[in-house]
UniProtKB/TrEMBL annotation:
GO terms for cellular component: efflux pump complex. It comes from the Bacteria. This is Efflux RND transporter periplasmic adaptor subunit. Belongs to the membrane fusion protein (MFP) (TC 8.A.1) family. PANTHER family: BLL4320 PROTEIN (PTHR30469:SF11), MULTIDRUG RESISTANCE PROTEIN MDTA (PTHR30469). SUPFAM superfamilies: HlyD-like secretion proteins. InterPro entries: RND_pump_MFP. One of its GO terms (molecular function) is efflux transmembrane transporter activity.
Length: 376
């Protein structure tokens, strides 16, 4: 009886386990059948095509604006100011007298010397006539001639003093600010006023360290006013002169660029931002900024690999080497090839291997070239 009871119990337990397993199998089969009809998880993004871009590396330096015809007028002689003919900021013509020192004494001396010369010239003429008839000695002729030469030199010396006391405009231009007043005493070598000509161009002088290649005359640089937003007031300037030696103190070479005033209006001694191209690369790829993601390992993008189904791709994480970027585009040196397709808006949602639906694919980028500046 006991054996039969045990057998019955074992059979009942086996039947119960079998029935439970059968029920579970039926449930799993139903779940698997249902899941077979559920589509694979995917994300929807926009995509763009990677393009090869021209990339120019440049260095940013600060230059100094120089006018080709800007000078400081200085009094060469001392004396009282008798006339001030122009106010600060006025336009003058070349040769016009700006400040006149008192030259009454010199004018009197010049008048006397001129009268004396007239007398000596008349005497020389008579002596020369007599000498031709041998009615006078050669010594008398030589003395008369020497006296005429001496008086001519005295007249030139007086005129030179008058010139030094007459401060004139060397060319057409605009005066700076001055404080010259009639009646004041000016010492020799005193600054009077500056004058700036009205040439249609300006020079920009700047220095580039010796670690960069030498630029040739005719090379173009980008210039801008310091503090101005890039692109708003930029202008191109051509290099017109290159210093053949380096400045010993800073081991840099001096350059001079020429910019038209119609391109950028700058003033004398104004600080100018200069962007100088030093290297150009042709194997750079460009993608929209939104395509580039970053983590602790660096930058990366999600390249979209076609699956064969229209509009569907697989996301593949690709590390990239970022060179530079502007407000729209990031420039990459490694990691992608031309015509690769990468995720754009929505890239942050992706992970490696996920199925991707592309709703909008663009084949061009807004900016395919750039200049990256490194400040010195």
């Amino acid at each position: 009886m006991k054996i039969k009871a045990w057998i019955a119990t074992v059979v009942a337990i086996a039947a119960l386990i079998g029935s439970m397993g059968y029920i579970k199998w039926i449930e799993m089969s139903a779940i698997m059948a249902a899941s077979a009809n559920v589509p694979e998880y995917s994300e929807t993004v926009e995509a763009t095509q990677v393009k090869q871009a021209k990339y120019t590396q440049s260095v940013a330096v600060i230059g100094n604006a120089v006018a080709p015809d800007h000078i400081e007028l200085v009094s060469e002689a001392s004396g009282l100011v008798s006339e001030v003919n122009f106010s600060s900021g006025e336009r003058v013509k070349g040769g016009e007298v700006i400040v006149q020192l008192d030259i009454r004494t010199e004018q009197a001396n010049l008048k006397a010397a001129s009268a004396k010369r007239k007398l000596l010239a008349s005497n020389y003429t008579r002596v020369k006539a007599l000498s031709s008839h041998q009615a006078i000695s050669q010594e008398a002729l030589d003395t008369a001639q020497a006296n005429l030469v001496v008086i001519d030199a005295e007249i030139e010396a007086i005129k030179n003093i008058i010139r030094k006391k007459t401060i004139t405009a060397p060319f057409d231009g605009v005066l700076g600010i001055h404080s010259a007043k009639a009646g004041e005493f000016l010492s020799a070598n005193t600054r009077v006023v500056s004058i700036t000509g009205e040439a249609g161009f300006m020079w920009v002088d700047f220095y580039i360290p010796q670690t960069y290649r030498k630029l040739a005359v005719g090379s173009l640089v980008q210039i801008n006013k310091v503090g101005e937003t890039a692109g708003l007031m930029e202008a191109k300037a051509g290099i017109v002169a290159v210093e053949e030696s380096f400045l010993a103190g800073i081991r840099s070479r001096k350059y001079r660029a020429k910019v038209l005033r119609t391109s950028l209006e700058i003033d004398v001694n104004e600080a100018i931002a200069v962007s100088v191209p030093v290297n150009q690369f042709n194997d750079i790829m460009s993608v929209p900024n939104i395509s580039v993601l970053r983590d602790v390992t660096g930058g990366y993008v999600f390249e979209l690999i076609p699956t064969g189904s229209k509009g569907q791709f697989r996301a593949k994480r690709k590390p990239v080497e970022i060179i530079s970027s502007n407000e729209h585009v990031t420039f990459l040196h490694a990691g992608l090839t031309p015509d690769s397709i990468v995720a754009a808006p929505g890239a942050f949602k992706l992970f490696d291997g996920v199925l991707v639906n592309v709703v909008n694919q663009t084949n061009t980028l807004a900016n395919k070239s750039a200049t990256f500046s490194k400040e010195l």
